[in-house]
Amino acid sequence: MVRSATSLTGNGVRDWLWQRVSAVILALYTVFILGFIWSTPQLDYVVWFQFFHHIGVKLFSILAAFSLLVHAWVGMWTILTDYVKPACVRLTLEMLVMIALFVYFVAAIVIVWSV
Q1: 0.90 exceeded by the pTM?
Q2: Residue 50: in which H helix or E strand, if any?
Q3: What pLDDT, on the 0 to 100 scale, is given for residue 67?
């Protein structure tokens, strides 16, 4: 059996499951944020600050950011594997995507924990 070094788990079924779980987490986070927006009569800086200052919101935000990273990686890996045939080009693009996703995740951590 050939295993891809750039696949998330090395197993297509597990990658599919990771993507579905991450999609559910992202959907729950979206409903959570929209529920807060719709249930808050007046949104201003102080309300947003207090909301995002809560440890539960910070943890849920980081979980959502990680879920977005996983979801994006599985999707991009699938697209690159299916449509970019030269291995050199595909691996270069995969590395660029990995670096970008890592930078985005670190930025999300810095933003969420700096509040």
Answers
A1: no
A2: helix 45-53
A3: 98
